[in-house]
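Note to self: keep these together.
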Amino acid sequence: MHAYLYGPLTRLGLIAAAMAVAIDQAAKLWLLFSFDLANRGLVHLTPFLAFVLTWNTGISYGLFPQESDLGRFVLLALKTGAVAVLWVWLARAESKLTALSLGLIIGGAIGNAIDRLAYGAVVDFVLFHITTPTFNFVWYVFNLADAAIVAGVAGLLYESLLGVRAVKAP
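Structure:
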């Protein structure tokens, strides 16, 4: 394989991507078809965590919702391009943390792309919230693919700001 598609840590990143996709899709399939989340409404798990089914037709945080086939195709094309760029970056990764982080981002993107292809929208279901008599905070609804992407970005930020190879200020 060409050097720009496969490097010494590419396998590690692709394993992380495959695991992220598998866990994300397994959770979504179970919640949709076994647990039947669509007919359960809001399911409280803890005082601050619940499951609720939402269909995200847009990108992160529901921005730029797309109801048309053309809009969904454009979002899939953008996601495919992003995965290709991330794969090239993965092939050049020089640390395990970078490879794992890029793998999580790639896996999360693929997991959400599978939803968009299968259902026309991304399946979101995790809701963090804090509700007291005097305070109400509700975070956006997300899924495990989104969590993988956030973890991957956090890993890349850590490595670039605090990692061994980070440029230190004088």
